[in-house]
Amino acid sequence: MKVYKKMVVAGLTMFSAIALAACSNDNSDVKSGFKPSVKMADSYNNTSKSSSTYNNGTLKVAEYNSAPFAGITSETLQNNAEDGDVYSPGMVKLFNVDNNNKIIDGGLADLKLDKKSMTATITINSKAKWSNGSKVIARDVEYPYEIIGAPDSPSQQYTEDMNAIKGMAEYHAGKAKTISGITMPKGEKGNVVVIHYSKFAPSLQYIGNSYMWSSIEPYEHIKNVPISKLASSSEVRKNPIFAGPYKLSKQVTGESTSWVPNKYYYGKKAQIKHITIQVVNPSNFTSSLKAKQYDFAQSGGVNTQYPQVKQLKDYKEVGTMGTSYDLLGFNVGHFDSKKQENVMDSNMKMGNVKLRQAMMYALDIGALRKKFDNGLSWLPNSVISPYYKKYYNSKTPRYTLNISKANKLLDEAGYKKKGKWRVQPNGKPLVINFGAQTGTSASEAQSSYYLQQWHKIGLNVQYASGRPMEMNKLYSILLKPKQDQVDVFEAGFSTGSEPTQTSFYGASAGFNIGHFATAKNTELLNNMNNSKSWNDEYRQKQFKEWQTYLQEQAVYVPVSMSLSWTPVNTRVKGYSARNDDNEFWSNLQLTSSNPE
């Protein structure tokens, strides 16, 4: 699970929004910006023959982002999707999956679940090696749990779902030096790991679930670095090793990474001899492709420039239903570092639910999506994407423009007008600090639109630092246990392959940056994976009830969801966006020397 910044919101200008009518069918939902109108193929394959001459060249990949990547190679420690993108040629999933993300045999490791004994047995492929030639061992599978659960860990990945692993809660609290529920029957250097659970969740069948970590860490390579210092260590930042199809040959921190095949990779051998991934400002999306500088975008396409890119004859658009989303979040509490849990405070500036709801009713986000995102993005009604067909609640209501309702909510909550601005119910001035992200001039115009609309209902909202902030700076504030610099913020979350949301919205989740924690929220999240949830009808009901509850509480409100897409240059062979393409980088080939 990672926070991230999407580029699809670019292209906005200040305008007077109009009210949206209620929608009742697919066609009207599209017209209102509630559903995408564009359809794409999920793969592209140039049928021309590739050759060693062409594959000896360089695959050129773009990472469209307005900020540099942080430079953390460890998946266990990464906080944003940009790092995941630029280091992806060297990464490998622990398990292979089918197109529904269900774990299957044949990957770096195989998984056997035993519901009766409540154990998960992980058996590592005997051929699996790191890029330095050392074998992938049991400790490499176990060590991520030590990193995530350590009391002084810089990782944000710990959630209460991890407590289902026996001994994990004690280790996380500093009461135990090891995790008793994770055993290595053949020793640390063997190839078998057994995880013992006190609660056995149906989500364990799918990769990316919140009960089992889906990547490995090179224990022998990093064992001498204290976990608290791991994120800044040279082993992670300057001299990393990888177990995927490629190894890092060069990097310019924050700007680019370069890759060559990893001769020790256990799986299908990489066919292209060189890969470069370059950070590119999203404002240059179309111009860089017109100049044939890149073969595709690992970060995805920029929606506002889709009409121009669609006209490029040497590129084909490939995409699938996305699971990532942008949101507006509100700071309603803090993270108690001693108890390792989020705590809501009703006295917080944004603690009143009617204030949060009013701010959402002041915005016509559906009109923004329709007008500027070219049918690729929509105003979602849930943080769970329609991609998760069984668990998505299509009936959860959206916040649509209703100025009179916004004003009524504020009046009812006691936020009375005193001159130009409303004041707090206690009569004190109310100044709301908005953490907006920098991007293109167009994306910043969206932030300005938010301010404009909030001012219309009498709320004195201003940029937290006087202007939009660079992404890494904003997240460094939001990820603090306690902060009072930002009251409402723009953020983006990249949901995992399994839809359980504890990693973002659980009471102990580090990524719960708004600090939303109620008994009902915890109950509904727990119900998604309790013993009854092996009955899928029951599980679906819990997911759907939670989605409506989260939307009503308005601590996190999704404002944009998009197709996950990219233009692919026609010289590329074997590009697939399907989940079951378990050898994405190894399957790629080239049919000419340079992008066409």
Q: What would your notes on this structure say?
A:
This protein is of the alpha+beta class and 596 residues long. The protein has 3 domains: 2-37 and 322-406 and 432-451 and 469-563, Dipeptide-binding Protein, Domain 3 (Dipeptide-binding Protein, domain 3); 43-88 and 236-320 and 564-590, D-Maltodextrin-Binding Protein, domain 2, CATH 3.40.190; 96-231, Dipeptide-binding Protein, Domain 1 (Dipeptide-binding Protein, domain 1), CATH 3.90.76.10. Helix content is 23%, strand content 20%. Strands 1, 14, 17, 20, 21, 22 and 23 form a 7-stranded mixed sheet that branches. A 5-stranded mixed sheet has the order 10-11-12-3-13. Helix 10 (353-361) packs antiparallel against helix 12 and helix 16 runs antiparallel to helix 17. The radius of gyration is 24 Å and the shape is globular. The two termini are 35 Å apart. The relative contact order is 0.20. The model is unreliable at 1-25 (pLDDT under 50). Keywords: Signal. It comes from Apilactobacillus kunkeei EFB6. This is Oligopeptide-binding protein OppA. GO terms for molecular function: peptide transmembrane transporter activity.
Summarize the structure.
The protein is α+β, with helices and mostly antiparallel strands and 596 residues long. Helices cover 23% and strands 20% of the residues.
* Major sheet summary line: 7 strands, mixed
Rg computed from alpha carbons, rounded to a whole number of angstroms: 24 Å
Reported CATH architecture of the largest domain: Roll
In whole angstroms, the N-to-C terminal distance is 35 Å
Q: Indicate how many domains the architecture comprises.
A: 3
InterPro entries: Peptide/Ni-bd (IPR030678), SBP_5 (IPR039424), SBP_5_dom (IPR000914)
Keywords: Signal
Organism: Apilactobacillus kunkeei EFB6
GO molecular function, one term: peptide transmembrane transporter activity
